[in-house]
Specification:
Largest sheet: none
Number of strands: 0
Radius of gyration: 14 Å
Shape: globular
Strand content: under 5%
Number of domains: 1
Helix content: 55-70%
């Protein structure tokens, strides 16, 4: 966004969270459509900057896509937990599959680690929903 890695990922995640908040009153599939659109935008927008398998930190649409994936159909505490889990897993890359997804070529690798992190967040959120929280 501003050709600096400082906080760009957090900005992208915050954008996803803001969109996720706006989608709360809508059916779950609206969140799914938003996540799919953000994923497509991420794959497209990262192409010119992902040369040599690099993930340019200042391109932040991937974080938006991962965050939107994490929030599909959630509200309240599960929404917040999913947001936190997705962001932490994207930053530390310790969960199975996140680092491997990042190693995929081009814009797919730029986007995939955020989607895998978002899937973990979504799973945690839905586990909390199933637990009645």
């Amino acid at each position: 966004m501003w050709k600096s890695d400082a906080g760009a990922g957090t900005f992208g995640a915050a954008l996803g969270a803001g969109i996720g908040l706006a989608l709360l009153p809508l059916p779950w599939w609206a969140g799914l459509l938003a996540a799919a659109a953000a994923t497509g935008l991420s794959l497209w927008s990262a192409v010119p900057f992902a040369a040599g398998g690099r993930d340019p930190g200042w391109v932040c649409m991937d974080e938006t896509a991962g965050t939107l994936l994490a929030l599909i159909g959630l509200g309240g505490l599960p929404w917040l937990a999913a947001l936190i889990v997705a962001r932490v897993f994207d930053i530390v890359k310790i969960a199975p599959g996140v680092r491997r997804a990042e190693g995929l070529p081009g814009s797919v690798g730029v986007t995939a680690d955020d989607l895998v992190s978002g899937a973990y967040g979504l799973g945690v959120g839905w586990l909390l929903v199933a637990a009645g929280l």
